[in-house]
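User: Let's play a game. I give you a shape written as tokens, and you guess the letters that built it. Ready? Here's round one.
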């Protein structure tokens, strides 16, 4: 087999005549530590470098071919329109040919090139990434995870020993940066938190394995690996070269996106993404692992940025900037481990009173988890959120099931330090008093937000409602009005009344 000097191939790939299609000149070359990417206009071509970093091994032609094929296979899941084919490069009479016959001397991955301004990271920097985008991304990632593979081998990567090994490795690899971008106290406290988490919660990891939440995930789901192209979110450049980075809990992927948004000081967008994802999947229990994985993802960004400080080819000004960035990520990783006081907020009011709109607004402001009774009810029934529930889903028995599950989730997550908004009618004294009693038993502060509006406004809102998972219609208002029970004196001390025909912010600030 002919040995080939990669740089000589890259020089050839920088020439328009190498390609069987028109190109946009000059052809652009982007290099990372593991690959060359050539941008030709309509198409991009990736060539893997013959490197071996231990966690990644592209050292032989066979391995590069294998990982090109893996990259194509795995990225078909989230960005099929972008990932086209793996092509051989042959060498005939000292000339390289793309897709030629004969022995291959290299393999390239052919992709459709998309405009850089469609990257989620670029959209964010230009102020074009909004809450509606992040809600849509939450739905896209939920659908992506639903289609990913799992089996006993993949699930074995969710065992405590495996998860712990990858997190402990990060600490080992950053000891040298203590006294630089990392502080001794932050290092000690972050590590103590993860040690404690693994020691105290082994059952949580077992449950995640049993419930099939360890899957063949993306593994690197930050904003630079997401684009909005042709009106569709695409998740690209997933981890193809390392199984432990890819066979992970779905919350590992979710945490990467949330952490990235929070690192960019956009907690509200992170909250929009997180709440939408969790509502779609019904995986509220997974939030118990979120702080661990948020800290892990921030720590990895800190570690990788710190590595630049050891590279003699990196200029001093770039190193100075890298040191500041790494310090911010180390601080973020540490901050995620701090204990937080949970809180329970009950929404109350008739259908159409603006409970969900108010709950969503509060969730963004407080970084709260919004749990809608409509979503809980449909997940319990095993039907799609967008499927209309029949009358059998709204019996007394189903109401009790739904409110029991709502409260169970609320208390569990508030116990983990989350502010939790239970978004339901809470129109009966018994339901409210059960929630207050449970909150007091678990020493969780509790509030009730009672949303009101004139009946004709409620009726109009319900008649105009579209594109929502709620099933309530205007003809239910009369019976709801009759059944609603007034607040007792004991309940009133927890109640804030909101007129949802008026601006929310001023009322809530009071």
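Assistant: Ready! My guess for every position:
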């Amino acid at each position: 087999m002919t040995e080939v000097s990669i740089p000589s191939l890259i020089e050839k790939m920088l020439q328009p005549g190498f390609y069987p299609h028109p190109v946009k000149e000059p052809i652009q070359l982007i290099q990372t530590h593991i690959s060359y990417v050539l941008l030709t206009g309509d198409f991009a071509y990736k060539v893997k470098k013959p490197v071996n970093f231990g966690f990644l091994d592209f050292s032989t032609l066979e391995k590069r071919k294998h990982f090109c094929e893996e990259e194509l296979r795995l990225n078909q899941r989230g960005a099929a329109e972008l990932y086209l084919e793996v092509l051989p490069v042959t060498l005939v009479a000292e000339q390289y040919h793309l897709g030629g016959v004969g022995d291959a001397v290299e393999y390239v991955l052919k992709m459709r090139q998309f405009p850089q301004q469609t990257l989620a990271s670029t959209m964010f920097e230009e102020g074009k990434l909004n809450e509606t985008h992040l809600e849509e991304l939450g739905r896209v990632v939920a659908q992506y995870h639903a289609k990913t593979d799992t089996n006993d081998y993949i699930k074995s990567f969710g065992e405590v020993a495996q998860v712990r090994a990858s997190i402990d490795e990060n600490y080992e690899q950053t000891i040298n940066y203590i006294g630089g971008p990392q502080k001794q106290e932050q290092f000690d406290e972050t590590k103590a938190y993860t040690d404690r988490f693994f020691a105290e919660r082994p059952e949580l990891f077992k449950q995640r394995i049993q419930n099939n939440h360890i899957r063949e995930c993306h593994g690197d789901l930050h904003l630079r690996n997401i684009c909005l192209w042709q009106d569709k979110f695409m998740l690209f450049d997933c981890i193809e070269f390392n199984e432990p980075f890819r066979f992970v809990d779905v919350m590992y992927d979710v945490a990467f996106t949330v952490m990235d948004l929070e690192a960019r000081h956009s907690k509200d967008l992170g909250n929009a993404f997180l709440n939408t994802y969790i509502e779609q999947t019904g995986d509220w229990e997974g939030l118990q692992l979120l702080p661990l994985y948020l800290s892990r993802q921030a720590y990895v960004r800190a570690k990788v940025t710190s590595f630049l400080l050891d590279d003699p080819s990196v200029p001093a000004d770039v190193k100075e900037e890298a040191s500041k960035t790494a310090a911010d990520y180390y601080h973020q990783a540490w901050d995620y481990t701090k204990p937080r006081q949970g809180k329970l907020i009950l929404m109350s009011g008739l259908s159409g009173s603006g409970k969900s709109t108010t709950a969503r607004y509060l969730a963004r402001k407080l970084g709260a988890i919004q749990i809608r009774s409509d979503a809980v009810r449909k997940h319990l029934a095993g039907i799609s959120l967008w499927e209309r529930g029949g009358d059998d889903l709204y019996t007394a028995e189903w109401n009790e099931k739904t409110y029991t599950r709502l409260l169970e989730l609320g208390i569990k997550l508030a116990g983990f330090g989350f502010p939790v908004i239970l978004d339901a009618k809470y129109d009966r004294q018994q339901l409210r008093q059960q929630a207050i009693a449970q909150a007091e038993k678990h020493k969780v502060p509790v509030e009730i937000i009672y949303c009101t509006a004139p009946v004709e406004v409620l009726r109009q809102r319900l008649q105009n409602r579209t594109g929502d998972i709620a099933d309530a219609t205007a003809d239910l208002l009369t019976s709801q009005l009759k059944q609603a029970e007034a607040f007792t004196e004991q309940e009133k001390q927890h109640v804030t009344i909101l007129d949802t025909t008026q601006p929310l912010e001023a009322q809530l600030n009071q």
